[in-house]
Amino acid sequence: MNKKELRPNIPSAKVDDTMSTEEQFQNLVIRPIIKLQHNTIIALFDNYLEHSDFDIHKFDTLKKLEFLKTVASRNQHLRNQYVGIIIGMFTDEEFAVYLTNMGEYSKRIMQIISQRIQDTY
């Protein structure tokens, strides 16, 4: 089985000619991989919380939301782990595309992961 066969189908992840190359790559490659890796993404965040001084259950709703929005982007080690979890599921061709605009694709990866974390907690 190849990596592409593992990915779930996301009917809402449509692609058309009006979208940028980055948006098409996001919808066709990044979003399905993030959906596939959801449990790993959440487990990694649970592990981070377990080993940190933060008890998000004691935060009020607003503080909790703000914390969840910023923690993954501010913690470089956590950010690198998340990006690694996703790019490890790329094919060789997809990785070559990722390298053409690594900063933009990594930013998109972290935005989607951040939203998933917020939605989960």
Helices, by number, come to 7
State the shape: elongated
Order of helices and strands: HHHHHHH
Largest sheet: none
Organism: Wenyingzhuangia heitensis
Protein name: Glyoxalase
Quick structural overview:
This protein has helices at 3-6, 21-36, 38-50, 61-74, 76-87, 92-100, 102-120. With 121 residues, the protein is mainly alpha-helical. It has one domain (29-120).
Question: Can you walk me through this structure?
Answer:
The structure is a single chain. This protein has 121 residues and is mostly helical. It has one domain. The chain contains 7 helices and no strands. The protein has helices at 3-6, 21-36, 38-50, 61-74, 76-87, 92-100, 102-120. Helix 2 (21-36) packs across helix 7, helix 3 packs across helix 7 and helix 5 packs across helix 7 (102-120). The longest helix is centred in the last third of the chain and has 19 residues, at 102-120. The model has no long low-confidence stretch (mean pLDDT 92). It comes from Wenyingzhuangia heitensis. This is Glyoxalase.
Features of the shown structure:
121 residues, mainly alpha, 7 helices, Glyoxalase
List the helices and strands and how they pair.
Layout: H1 3-6, H2 21-36, H3 38-50, H4 61-74, H5 76-87, H6 92-100, H7 102-120
